[in-house]
Batch of 2 targets.
Target 1
Amino acid sequence: MQELLDRRATAWEQADVAGLAAVTAPGSEADAQERSLIGEASAQELRYPSVTFEVTGAGVKEQDEERMVVDVAVRRLALEVRRGEEVVHSSPETTDQVRVVLVAHGQGWRVEQWVPLSPAAGSRPSGPPAPGPGA
């Protein structure tokens, strides 16, 4: 789980939609959402120079060979969103509870869906103005 979050953070830091292939399942709800949000941020010339997610707890709720459902506590360090050198948004550190649906993909797992479980996670778990816990 931590590895997926690290890859997701890198995709946001680099505004790298292609980098999401190492995080989200192709054609999934999570993939479409992340691609759209990173695209929106890029179109607005927003940068996320330092995104850090840390798994502070996880519990597998369901699992078989093809699919796994995990409830995860995700800590996101304080975040600044920039346009050029200007800070246009800052967000304090947060810890959110997220239900992550993973699907088997090649030799690993990819995120198919993430659903916020805590009120702080809000209705959009990622993207402008700040990436949330997501995957």
Target 2
Amino acid sequence: MPGDAYRIMLVEDHPMILFGLAHLLQAEPDLDVVGQATTADVARRLVQTTDPDLIVLPVRLGDRVAGIELCRHLKSSTTAKALVYTSFTDPEDVQAAVLAGADGLVGKAATPEDLLSAIRSIRRGQRIWLPGPRADQRAGAALLDHPRLTEREREVLRLMLDRLTNQQIAEALTVEITTVKSHVRSLLRKLGMESRRDLFDAQP
């Protein structure tokens, strides 16, 4: 691997998913999988010896929300970025990832291209939130496709649809809350809505 390859540690308790992730990432010349862990305890030890730039981990390990706890621990004890890669994408899970300090979240329904793009965006210093559509978000997909919305407004709207507060959105995107409020006003105006309540009333 090139010396400037992005060093990634994987945490996943499902062997086939772990194998698939490692195979996908290791095939990319700018990415280097430097460690793989199947439990939180192994991950805590492994991060000390592998010194990764990014840790990819799930919301849950086993039957517990240990991935979020691990994310919080690693973000407070290392300089590595953290990407939550999960099949649990309800608003509560997204909020938990935000509060744990994650630099992004990608749902497991995402394409390999989406995951690779998210990893490279995080490497560039961006924060990425792609939980993917849930049954109660499908109407929101049409709103996200509104042609007048900017890319940043779509990011804010996506988090609004996950019912994050303005403060949580500011933390997720590492911007000031006044900036979030400005985006919210702008996107609601473009959508012909007056408040967040209108946004959710528009969904069946």
